[in-house]
Amino acid sequence: MAEQSMEMNDGLIDETAESEVEKLRAELEDATDRLLRAQAELDNYRKRARRELEESLRYAAMPLVRDLLPVIDNLGRALAAAEKSGEKSVLIDGVKIVAQTFESVLARHDCKKIDAFSQPFDPAFHEAILQQPSAEHPPQTVLLVAQDGYTLHDRVIRPAQVIVSTS
Known about the structure:
3 helices; 2 domains; alpha+beta; 6 strands; Nucleotide Exchange Factor Grpe, Chain A, domain 2
């Protein structure tokens, strides 16, 4: 009888130990799963933070460029007025060189003028300020650029203000 009692105790101990082992395995799987999720979240955070930092550095010059665009506009207006008056002077040639240098510096920093004239109207790059009927151009074509637009890398700093053809 003592043997039976020991066998029963051994059976209970085996079942209890097996139950405890299963419980520990489940806890281990849960902890492993939580660890993998935490590692994935950390990796995603690092990637997102790196992407946001790169983007902020890439577009850091945007406020400065936005503030300088009126200067380019005014240089263009000054040159247009000088050409209308028919004057030929060294000062006008100097202003042309300054304007060209200004635009080439912006281009080196990936700030480019939006090519709008005779292009199909695109609301992502153009702002229509007027529509005019035109027999020579298909509808929704840019007839005139009232103010140049600019992009920095792939973002529009200022859309081109344009006059668009209608049928």
